[in-house]
Amino acid sequence: MTDKKRLLFVCVGNAARSQMAEGFARRHGADGVEVRSAGTHAAGLVSGPATEAMAEKGVDISSHRSDQITDDLIKWAQVVVTVGCEPAEDICPPDYPGRKLHWDVPDPLFRPPGELPGIRDDIERRVKELLEELAGE
Fold first, then answer.
1. Count of CB atoms within 10 A of residue 65's CB?
2. Residue 50 above 70 pLDDT?
């Protein structure tokens, strides 16, 4: 990628899914992306199990914060990806000029703990595919 793409990942609490997506985008996007995440109803903390699951993949999200989505964050982003919450179409204003994507990913906070690695790996796969696609633009 010649220009850094600005990516915003959004889920409900900004406690697990969007945090994992942010972590993977930072890891796999390296210097080609700027990444942030937020929640439609920020939980105020990052899930311990999500942090542990990411550590298993060598990605440290322990210093991440759970942030509330704002209009300024949306305006900053060139790509808004909703991860299992309301579709990006509903979160972004009608005149938002960037790309809007929605990934239907189950919330690991309401699933058996054994399902978290599969959800984490699905998010990683999706992030890698997005980064490859953006690299080709």
1. 12
2. yes
